[in-house]
Amino acid sequence: MIAFSNCKINLGLHILNKRDDGFHNLETVFYSIPLNDCLELIPGKNDAINQVNFHSFGLSIDGDSNQNLIVKAYHLLAKDFELKPIDFYLLKNIPMGAGLGGGSSNAAFALKMLNEHFKLNISIQKLKEYAAILGSDCAYFIENTPSFAKGKGEVIETIDLSLKGYFFVLINPNIHVSTAEAFSNVYIRGEQQTSLKDLIKNSVEKWKSLIENDFEKSVFLNHPEIKKLKEKLYDNGAIYASMSGSGSSVFGLFKENIDLKNQFEGNFYFSCTL
User: Fold this and answer.
1) Residues known to be catalytic
2) pLDDT digits (tens, 9 = 90+) for 47-104
3) Which fold has domain 2-158?
4) Alpha-carbon dihedral sign for residues 257, 261, 237, 223
């Protein structure tokens, strides 16, 4: 079984306040982008139960493979179901530490694949609950449709939003921005009169003056080169540009197809018509 787990961008990200549990309440809009990893599930060769092997190719993944969210997804379901052994093979294309949710997407797709492969009949809502245990934005990738998210990012509501026809450019400067770094000195806006859920309803041409990513203030301070990438997208005619998530990727929306690859040489570059 093979699946192509896509990434997402954040259209705006507001940090509202700090919670008693140490996390932050935020609001954001998730939008899926057709930049994919490839994930394959193959049945194991023995009769053991609750055993998973993980193999990765492509972009290097740091850390202990047993801590990978794909492996954690298997063991999470294995707490409630008796699962036969499987092997997961991941071809990694989506940059990591880039604000694109690639790891979260892998985890969510792994849950869906395990559900289908083992015929577990887990409902969409229950899959979302499992996914939320693995990570704040994992649940989004279960249905994978434009959504408004709040809380830690795990309270998700599907919205009517389409960027069909816009040309999309994504740049990643090969800088890893950790969540801890992004939250250091982060701007907390507090209560606001207008929610991002309402702001996103404005035309894309108005987003530049209305929709912000609050992580930009702290990340741009530490990495001015990321700020310059965003400015360069505007200089080349983007009608809206932003950093995605907690960084370090930036993206631009254009009305027409444009080739900027030579201008961003040395950076990860992806473009498509949405």
Assistant:
1) 8, 137
2) 778 889 999 999 998 888 888 999 999 999 999 999 999 999 999 999 988 899 999 9
3) Ribosomal Protein S5; domain 2 (3.30.230)
4) positive
CA-based torsion, 234, 238, 241, 244: positive or negative: negative
Q: List where CATH 3.30.70.890 sits in the chain.
A: 167-273
Alpha carbon distances (Å) from 197 to 27, 73, 161, 224? 8, 30, 11, 29
Task: Identify the DSSP state of 261.
Answer: G
β-bridge partners, 115: none
Residue 29's nearest CA partner among 240, 229, 256, 269 is 240
Q: How far, in Å, CA of 155 to CA of 174, rounded?
A: 30
**H or E element at residue 169:** strand 167-172
Identify the three-state secondary structure at position 38.
strand
- 65 prior amide bond cis, ω within 30: no
| Type of residue numbered 45 | K
Q: Sorting pLDDT into bands at 50, 70 and 90, what band is 178? A: confident
Q: 180 pLDDT exceeds 90?
A: no
Give CATH superfamily name and number for 167-273: GHMP kinase, C-terminal domain (3.30.70.890)
Q: Which of 168, 167, 112, 108 is closest to 132 using CA atoms?
A: 108
Model pTM?
0.93
